[in-house]
Please model this.
Amino acid sequence: MHPVLALAVTLATFAFMEFWAWFMHKYVQHGALWILHRSHHVRPSPRPFEHNDWFFVIYGAISAVLFSTGNGGQRWWFWVGVGIAAYGTVYFFVHDGLIHGRLPFWKKTDNVYLRALNMAHKMHHKTQGRDHSEEFGLLWVSPKYLRLARQQAAKKGNLT
Model:
C-alpha cells in the first residue's frame, strides 16, 4: 500500500476512534456493559487492574487480528489496526496515566488542553452511577472546559 494512503487510513481511523470511544462509553459502557465499566467509577480503585481494563484487552485483540491478517501493511486493514493501536496508546497515557494517575511519573501538568481534559473527566466521574454522567469522550473537550482551564492558567500566569 502506498505510504500516503497508509498514513491517511491510520489518521482517519485514529480520528474515528474518538467518536467510537465516545459512543461506546456513553451507550454501551454506561448501558449494557456497565457491569464491566462500573469498576472504573469506584475511587480509589481497590486493585491495580479493573474490570473496565477488559475494554483495553478487547481493542488490543481487534488491533492484533488486523495486524496479523494485514499482510505486513499490504492490506488496508493493517493500517486500521495501527490507528486503533495508536488511539489506545494515547488513551492509556492520557486517561489512565495522567487523568487517573495510574502512571506515577505523570502527576500534574500546567498545559491548558490537558487541564481541560482533566476537568471534563472529573465532571464525568462526579456521578458515580451509570446514569446522569456527562463528558464521554477522551481527546475532544467541550469548549466550556477549555475556557475554564484558560481562566485558571491566566490567574496563575501560566498559559501553555
